[in-house]
Amino acid sequence: MTQTLSPSEPLADTRPVVSLDHVTKRFPGVVANDRVSFDLWPGEVHVLLGENGAGKSTLVGMLSGLQLPDEGGVLVEGREVRIASPARALELGIGTVFQHSMLVPSLSVVDNMALGGSWWSRPDRDGVARKMAAVCADIGVTIDPHAKVGSLSLGEQQQVEIVRALMRGSRVLILDEATAMLTPKGADDLGALMGRLVKLGIAVVFITHKLNEALAFGHRITVLRLGRKVGEIAPERLAALGPAAATAEIVRLMFGTGATAAEAVATTVRTRPSGAPVLEIEGLAVDDPSVPVAGIDLSVAPGEIVGLAGIDGNGQKQFAEALAGQRRLAAGRILLGGEAIERLDVGGRRQRGLRYVTDDRLGEGTVGSFPISLNLLLKQVGEAPFWRRGIEQPEAIADHARRLVGEFDVRTPGIETAIGKLSGGNIQKALLARELSGPARAVIFAKPTYGLDVQNIRATRQRIREAADRGLAVILISTDLEEVLELSDRVAVMSRGHIVGVVDNDAGARNRVGELMSGVTA
Amino acid sequence: MSGLFTEAFLTSLVLGALTAGLPLMLAGLGEQISEKAGVLNIGIEGMMLFGAYLGFLVAYTTGSVWLGFLGGGLGGVLVAAPMALFCIRMGLSQIVIGIALTLGAEGLTALLHHFQFAQSYPRLPAVPTLAIPGLSAIPVIGPALFDRPPIVYLAVLAVAVTAYVFRSTQFGLSLQAAGDKPAALDAAGVDVARVRTCAVLTTGFLAGIGGAFMSQVGAGIFVPFMTNGAGFIGIVLAMQARGRPLWVLCGALLFGACLSATTALQVAGVSIPTDVIQMLPFAAVLMVLVLFGRRASLPPALGLHYVRGAR
């Protein structure tokens, strides 16, 4: 490896700017990265693709200075380096935008950028703002330098972090699950921004578990599985393959078989349900300081899935909780099978067949330290036959738990295992078991696949379809537009606490929903 | 009632507010710095008390007021140092360690006092004052505010300096970030533990001077447990001030006025039982908490140990 080249010579591009050379990282009981090699080239978006737990975060951690490899080396411009801290990573020109914002919400944008200067100096706010404006102009974004970070949207905060990394001279930019919290529009904007960044000669690492984003934004794709690198698709190959073949190839790499490819892209054709609505919502309103919800009219027929699309935080949560009885209604009626239930409490509504699968699985969905058997009965505590005159009936509880664990395929060492020890996917299975069993008539799913890996996402979506096929009325709240379009019969779009439109899920639905979400036709 | 508002009464009220309020202000200011950096410093009562003891001891042995205050500050730092070690470096509970340090300082100073001063109860001479020309001639507030020991002016100056540091220095930004989002500060290449350690030691220094003020200027004597909850009032002040040093000053003077009302009302010869009067400052704390408690805002990372890479 030659080290005497000056950067101006074109040959400089023939070696990677950063390389991981067979790095291994172990945590107690797990090999998070097993001899992974990884090269970053200037002017390329290198996608790091893998399911939850594939080792993406660990790999990023070693590049950004949060973790040190146990074995193997990190090379920057061909020289072996030790990245012991985030500060060292920055010195080496490696900037990271983490999934969770690394900005101080109570400080302004310039103050965040100025952070880290020498102790007793005054932050050079004007200088920083000038420098920022220059970088912003280069990469085509606009940011108010004096805005408080806490008042910016997540997408804007990400742009701030990217600009900050560039201002510090980063030549390598790591975007860790950067699109996870963004709207579809925000994700596309970020994709375009990545394109502009690599044109400036920057190497971008884009970590994601979304296949479509990997293909749309990436030049080179590396797939991780269970801590191992299972494949890399170079730019020439990616271009030669075309989107369909590339998808098949990646799915094969991620899951080990080609068979799932068809399933991953297939959309189920459902017969359009009809009949008198089982769940009717009229003029529902909820008082809420951040997002007041008002004027919600929606009815759901038995066997129908109504998707509720929208950017997160537009009143979906408030709406779902009001339906489930966890929030007071300011106005409106809820009819379940013709019976008004808006005055009933959570238990009353549940008894009449209304179920709510919360997105806050560990917070309000389960009690982490309780065994699975009790968590499966969390909403029926004290009810016969599991409790008689206040006395627990262990036999009945255990039978019930064993039946549901088997039926819903919850992978657990036993029914007495504390539910908090299970993986997110298995906790979700237990929640689904609790909410979908028994005499249910209508189910509200709040972001049911949020944070799950691909296999559990698939299993959960299957459960939602089955619930509808059983004749339940389903409301599916999701911020993942793909999910809504894949499952729903009709799509309602929520924006700023109102339903701004309901469209049938047909060929043109994607565009109309997109327009409604971005407020074009509102 | 007209006899109540004599010049003597008013002067003694304002003077008392300042004398009683100044230690509270120093404690509140110190606590504010710790809290801004994300450390809930419950040991501040112990820091004040040890500062009161050491300040008195140094002033008594050397005869120098200034060395006394320096000793007081050092005393506070001595109690703050274990807090920094246990809570910031080792990640132990800030609440448990804070309580332990306060109790420890109470026990230790009472013990030392018993062996050194319990027989003789020595007194310090009155601390010389520095009259500010012109201003000190104003009736009532002149003698009460502008003919005070120089440490008073320095303490008020400390408020302005702290406000400047918070708003206009890198260190101020670092403090804010350490309490709001330490991971961001770490990512910016600043050592979170170092910022927090600096904050806690500064708190100890200011609280210690506050304690020394109580023993050297307020009482002229050291008695066990003499801080009598001033550190805890300082914690309340810091929480109510929501990160603004000037509010600490105002709050401290208000509490000081309540504390000094005891003396002032006695000077005025009002016949209210002393027990009732002595409850005033604590009733005022309760009132403030009831009225403004909801609006108290604390940094998100307050009381949380920072570990790199943990989310």
Write a brief caption for the model.
The complex is a heterodimer of chains A (522) and B (311). Chain A is of the alpha/beta class and 522 residues long.
Give a structural overview:
By secondary structure, chain A is of the alpha/beta class. Chain A has helices at 56-64, 86-91, 109-114, 125-139, 154-167, 184-199, 211-217, 235-255, 260-265, 316-324, 346-351, 361-365, 372-375, 394-407, 424-436, 454-469, 481-487, 509-518; strands spanning 18-27, 30-40, 45-49, 71-76, 79-81, 94-97, 172-176, 203-208, 220-225, 228-233, 279-286, 293-300, 305-309, 331-336, 339-340, 354-357, 387-388, 391-392, 442-446, 473-477, 490-495, 498-504. In chain A, the strands form five sheets. A six-stranded mixed β-sheet of chain A has the order 6-7-8-3-9-10, with helices on both faces. In chain A, strands 16-19-20-13-21-22 form a six-stranded mixed β-sheet, sandwiched between helices. With 311 residues, chain B is mainly alpha-helical. Chain B has one domain (20-243). Chain B has helices spanning 7-36, 44-62, 65-89, 94-116, 141-145, 150-168, 170-180, 182-187, 192-219, 230-241, 245-267, 274-292; strands spanning 130-131, 147-148. Chain B has a two-stranded antiparallel sheet. The longest helix of chain B is centred in the first third of the chain and has 30 residues, at 7-36. The radius of gyration of chain B is 20 Å and the shape is globular. The termini of chain B are far apart. The A-B interface holds A 61, 66-67, 85-87, 90, 96, 98, 100-107, 111-112, 114-123 and B 168-171, 173-174, 176-177, 180-181, 183-190, 299, 308-309, 311.
